[in-house]
Design brief:
seven-stranded mixed beta sheet; Aldehyde_DH_dom; Aldehyde Dehydrogenase, Chain A, domain 2; Aldehyde Dehydrogenase, Chain A, domain 1; alpha/beta; globular
């Protein structure tokens, strides 16, 4: 789609906001405005809800194969348009073009996966305790759903929510981040072209998410909310959802440990550390935040990681040789600077980076800090930036305890050749996603989600569609032997 013609998508129509207001979308690499987008308000949410409710019953009753075909066509279209979609994403979010291409492939995989799952929503017959009865279990769509998505993965976070909702038979309203709305509009256009009936999907963008979302939270007919974002906002939404007993899926903040044991393949550990730390310039809820390295390999790992990060090239993501793009905005840069300054003040040693470059764009270089301790901000908070904080440890029990000493529980990574240790950590690390000798565990067929304050529910895999289905049972009597 042409980015200068972005519009809200409501009830199958591309439309302006009722208030007639707009906001600017800024390229974080250049700080230049690339689009003006309608600024939706409460009346626009009401329009989207009414449009969805008008088609809810017909979409729920549409054959699973029909819903599957629409999702498959959308997946194929995303792949066919991958270069244009990737460039659009890089312009509004900043990540290098190679990463944007990878995200489009990842995003399309959710449409494809849930197209297949749509045809596998099976019921069950349970033996009754009476000869003239049978118990039938059936699954039905939970109803109108609201998906609130973040800016850091502007395509994949939408398809990971919209895919299962549509597959299950639920209409869905998407509220993307106001920082990255253009990818959301592009996905809506793809679904429209794939044959999705008007009203089944709406996309609303707005700079005042509180009043916009409140309309949906107050509406009883909105039966499901899926949110990816901060823990603080997730908690507020959970409280609001309780008023009308909405189904809730929350994928919230992380504080991922990356553990390297002395027996690990050190080169593989470094290679995966770069992926786990620098994917999307560290602006990922599963980014490695604390790198615990066993003391015998501490110096070697630190040196190899520093060399690997020093070889990365920072710049505008549209340039093909760039591997480090900008952060999303000035607030993100300020947080990274605060974490690095605090660590150095408390005695951490700067091995690489640590200084924001001059010029336009929200850039911060790959940075390595050694001698980090658990008391520093960078070990206590989610940095969301390109800073590798290295902490030393001695024993397995010690590092498990330190890694678990957080209220977050989304992702953790560990590297070892000891098969017994692989299983012990899998059982004792309090995280929903574990990368054992793997710095990139996310995939459409796996259940993505966290423990503790990192959220509720799972996205992806066959578990992902269950989040959009209600289970009913029918006690069938009058069966004569």
């Amino acid at each position: 789609m042409e980015i200068d013609k972005a519009r809200l998508y409501i009830g199958g129509e591309w439309t302006e906001a009722v208030a007639g207001t707009y906001f600017d979308v800024v390229n974080p690499a250049t700080e230049q405005v690339i689009a003006r987008v309608p600024d939706a308000g409460p009346q626009d949410m009401r329009r989207a809800i009414d449009a969805a409710l008008a088609v809810q019953a017909s979409w729920a009753d549409a054959p699973a194969a029909e819903r599957a075909q629409i999702l498959l066509r959308a997946a194929q279209s995303m792949r066919a348009q991958s270069e244009d979609l990737a460039r659009l994403m890089t312009e509004e979010e900043g990540k290098p073009l190679s990463e944007s291409r990878g995200e489009i492939a990842y995003a399309s995989s959710f449409f494809e996966w849930f197209a297949e799952e749509a045809k596998r929503v099976y019921g069950e017959i349970i033996p009754a305790n009476s000869a003239n009865k049978r118990i039938l279990v059936i699954k039905r769509p939970v109803g109108l759903s609201l998906a609130i998505t973040p800016w850091n993965f502007p395509a994949a976070m939408i398809t990971r929510k919209v895919g299962p909702a549509l597959a299950a038979g639920c209409p869905v309203i998407v509220k993307p981040s106001e920082l990255t709305p253009l990818s959301a509009f592009a996905i809506a256009k793809i679904l429209e072209d794939a044959g999705l009936p008007p009203g089944v999907l709406s996309v609303l963008t707005g700079t005042q998410p509180g009043p916009l979302v409140q309309v949906a939270m107050d509406e009883f007919s909105v039966r499901k909310i899926s949110f990816t974002g901060s823990t603080a906002v997730g908690k507020r939404l959970m409280v609001q959802a309780a008023e009308t007993m909405k189904r809730v899926s929350l994928e919230l903040g992380g504080q991922a440990p990356f553990i390297v044991f002395a027996d690990a393949d050190l080169d593989a550990a470094v290679e995966n550390a770069v992926i786990a730390k620098m994917r999307s310039v560290g602006e990922s809820c599963v980014a490695a935040n604390r790198m615990y390295v066993q003391r015998p390999v501490l110096e070697a790992f630190s040196r190899k990681l520093t060399d690997a990060l020093a070889a990365m090239r920072m710049g505008d993501g549209l340039q093909n040789d760039v591997t480090v793009g900008p952060l999303i905005d000035g607030r993100a840069v300020a947080k990274v600077e605060r974490h690095v300054a605090d660590a150095q003040k408390q005695g951490a040693r700067l091995l690489l980076g640590g200084t924001r470059p001059q010029g336009p764009g929200y850039f911060y270089p790959p940075t390595v800090l050694a001698g980090v301790t658990d008391s520093m901000l960078i070990a206590q908070e989610e940095t969301f930036g390109p800073v590798a904080a290295i902490l030393a440890f001695d024993t397995e029990d010690e590092v498990i305890a330190r890694a678990n000493n957080t209220r977050a529980g989304l992702a953790a990574y560990y590297f070892t050749r000891d098969v017994g240790r692989v299983m012990r950590l899998a059982e004792h690390l309090e995280y929903g996603i574990l990368g054992a000798n793997d710095g990139l565990p996310s995939t459409a067929q796996a259940p993505f989600g966290g423990m503790k304050e990192s959220g509720l529910g799972r996205e992806g895999s066959h578990y992902g569609i269950d989040e959009y289905l209600d289970i009913k049972y029918v006690s069938l009597g009058g069966i004569n032997r």
